[in-house]
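User: My notes are a mess, but here's the protein and adenosine-5'-triphosphate's SMILES. Can you give me a structure?
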Amino acid sequence: MIEVKELTKRYGATVAVDGLSFRVEPGQVTGFLGPNGAGKSTTMRVLLGLDAPGSGEALVNGRRYAAIRHPMREVGALLDAAAVHGGRSAFDHLRWLARSNRIGVRRVTEVLEQVGLAGAARRRVGGFSLGMRQRLGIAAALLGDPGVLMFDEPVNGLDPEGVRWIRHLMRSLAAEGRTVLLSSHLMSEMALTADRLVVIGRGRLIAETSVQDLAGRFERGVLVRSPRAAELTAVLRAAGATVLAEPDGGLTVKGLEVTEIGDLAAGHGLAVHEVTPRSASLEEAYLELTGDGVEHRAAGR
Ligand SMILES: Nc1ncnc2c1ncn2[C@@H]1O[C@H](COP(=O)(O)OP(=O)(O)OP(=O)(O)O)[C@@H](O)[C@H]1O
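Assistant: No problem, the inputs look usable. Here's the predicted complex:
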């Protein structure tokens, strides 16, 4: 489990993280979303003890990173895949990490297999593509078999097959009961991967929500067409719906599900020619949340 409590971090005049609080629970993939510069990397760096908090706390399994006895066995992270010594082979890089964390060398072979780099284990990292470096970084994160994993923009530079692979890996790590925090500035990546979302902007929490709830919150109502629109409007309003007549004769109905609308119409013998749910895409919801015009304020858990 990851807990960030009232975390603030300044760099000179820049407030990178501003009173941020959220929790990341095990058994789920939590997407950490925000536009560029929102403070995602800073938050992860503080969680990993690479930066000190200005105020507040960033805890992994209830402790500060520095207080964890064998960090790699509790928390694994991929922050900057490019930051690997180019002269070593993938195997040697991981073996060095394993040794310095008292992890058996057998794990090195296992994680290289897991990330699909077994065939390149003896090659120098300097010759690796960005995608291979990402895989190596993920192998390093998995080395200590940790229960908590953090990945900062892991799909950057990956081809579509690599993106699918990451998605599958994240989901299977969460299914094993691990805590998985995955940062991105793209909602499109999260829609298929994450169960929950922590959305931040300008260092502050904008939303902590399930993917499903976010989509629901920005629901645009149901478009209904009926040759007996006026009677149907009365029936739907009586059932508690908000009904708006569109200029083209359609009705926008909010507050009732598609099935409820259909059943009510049928129950009153009113023909219906169209019933179409009009959800905003998650992408639209995200843009609306993080847009400049929106006051940055925590909303619904
Ligand atoms: N070491 C640093 N020194 C000065 N300013 C910094 C430093 N690290 C981050 N910042 C600033 O803090 C703010 C948050 O940056 P951060 O990298 O955490 O955002 P991010 O959400 O991870 O963005 P991105 O998606 O671009 O990585 C930005 O304004 C950034 O310029």
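The first strand starts at residue 2 and ends at 11.
User: Great, I'll file this with my notes.
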